[in-house]
Amino acid sequence: MKKVTLLLMFAFVMFMVTNAQTETKTSTEQTATNGPVITFQNLVHDYGTVQKGSDGNTEFKFTNTGNEPLVLTNVTTS
């Protein structure tokens, strides 16, 4: 009886492990089909060596590649 119980528990664990390996869409992939999608021209900006007192402003260019309007609210800098 112990062998049968152990075998059933092992089969159940293996089923759960293989079931957990199924591929699911990430939130990024789901929003790519519907809704707004923000796509940046460059993801990284290297300022190099910044001198004290110099202007550190830069432009970040992006486009909406989704199929609905992209609305930016509460945009802040750090």
Account of the 3D structure:
Helices cover 33% and strands 8% of the residues. It is mainly alpha-helical and 78 residues long. It has one domain (2-64). The protein has a two-stranded antiparallel ribbon. The longest helix is centred in the first third of the chain and has 19 residues, at 2-20. The mean pLDDT is 81.
Keyword list:
elongated, single chain, 2 helices, 78 residues, mainly alpha, 8% strand, two-stranded antiparallel ribbon, 33% helix, 2 strands
Determine the number of helices (DSSP H or I, runs of at least 4 residues).
2
Total separate domains: 1
Q: Give the SSE order as H and E letters.
A: HHEE
Secondary structure tally: strands:
2
| N-end to C-end Cα span | 64 Å
Strand content: 5-15%
**Relative helix content:** 25-40%
Tell the overall outline: elongated
The value of Rg in angstroms is 25 Å
Strand order, main sheet: write it out: 1-2
Low-confidence regions: none
Reported for the largest beta sheet, the result is: 2 strands, antiparallel
* Class based on secondary structure composition and strand pairing: mainly alpha
Mean pLDDT: 81
Please provide a brief summary of the model.
By secondary structure, the chain is mainly alpha-helical. The chain contains 2 helices and 2 strands.
